[in-house]
Write a structure and sequence with these properties.
The protein is 33% helix and 22% strand. By secondary structure, it is α/β, with parallel strands linked by helices. A nine-stranded mixed sheet has the order 8-9-7-10-11-12-13-14-15, sandwiched between helices. A six-stranded mixed sheet has the order 16-17-21-18-19-20, with helices on both faces. Helix 4 crosses helix 10 and helix 4 packs across helix 11. The two termini are 35 Å apart.
Length: 452
Amino acid sequence: MEKILLSDIARTVGGTIDIKSEIGEISTDTRQLIAGSVFIAIRGERFDGHDYVAKAFEKGAVAAITEKQIENYPCIIVNDTRKAFLDLARYYRSLFNIILVGVTGSVGKTTTKEMIALVLSEKYNTLKTEGNLNNEIGLPKTLLGINKSHKAAVIEMGMSDFGEIERLSNTAIPTISVITNIGFSHIENLKTQEGILKAKLEILSGMSSDAPLVVNADDRLLSTVKDSLNRRVLTYGIENKTADYYAKNIYEENNGTIFTVKYQDRDVEVSLPCIGRHNVLNALSAFCIGINSGISEEEIINALKKYKPDELRQNIVKKGEQTVIIDCYNASPDSMKASLSVLLQVKAENNGRKVAVLGDMLELGEMSRQLHENVGKFTEMADVDMLFTYGYDSVYIAEKAKESGVSVMHTDDKAKLVNELKTYLKAGDVVLFKGSRGMRLEEVIDGLYGIN
């Protein structure tokens, strides 16, 4: 963070303070606070930052942003510290004239963010969202990390209800944005896929009228956006050959993918060190962003070759005598099917089998049973030799898979699941682990193969 005046901070959040100082750090966590910072007292579900104001000053805070006066400490008092944090991040971001890419979508936004950041980094010093800092606390933290050396930023935006993307976009002020797809994540709150589309389109709120929106033309709902919005919309796809950027001649081998990008009457061959058509779509969006941000074809090709999956996101590794596909970070119906498609593509060794270990998909509300059943039907198409399901609603995956003729074992006991897998698996098998983050399937992997 570049230094800014404390008086400007107070003015931005709608408060006052009678201290003249330059501030080079904003903190919401006293454990990470450094001397000279401003501490923001955020209220959370399990904590209240106001209880830590004294600790912040013990560690050298210059001032605190609070919703009430804390006796004996200099405070900038506001009505809502969460809103103040967003307001401050918006002001700070506005000080920099940079390319800022907003990324949202039901599935694939983190992978898309990573690929876009790789592409932009070929030419620009690029800041990106780290980890899961894609909410109303994480996003402002990321924006406050911009400094004079940065020429670009890639900011992921997550949400669980209406209004959240709007607030995030108004804070980040994207110069170009991507919506990866409209799935079923958070449908418990948003009720319908049309509701999810409406929530995702809130990303336009912080964008100027001439800032382009990039969308997946293979998505049923997003394919209509280009005709319905009065702005520049760029599309990408595999099935939709009318897309501005589409992939053809897709060839997967040795856990890698080669395909051709067709755009503006040009054909460009791209190589990815991962498999899955969903990853081709993610790469297409990054290619589109790169071309429209002044990155050359050669630089984009070079960048995408460097992509490496996160260890919990579709990471294909050798463990013991099996090939393991680790995809335990999150799960939705679309990402479940995408992971099963990857399982289908990975070659087993020595007559090995294809084994899927699937956990519950969370936050699906009233549609949970139906959506789990849909995944169960898909397991037959994925040519799964054996399906293990774990959790509560995943029993519906198991039931539909069994009706389709797939061999199934279901349990809600993680220790039992580990023991059953130890008995069943043999050398050469390919094993997929996929489930929502709350299911913690990586613990099953650790139980099978030992902790890394």
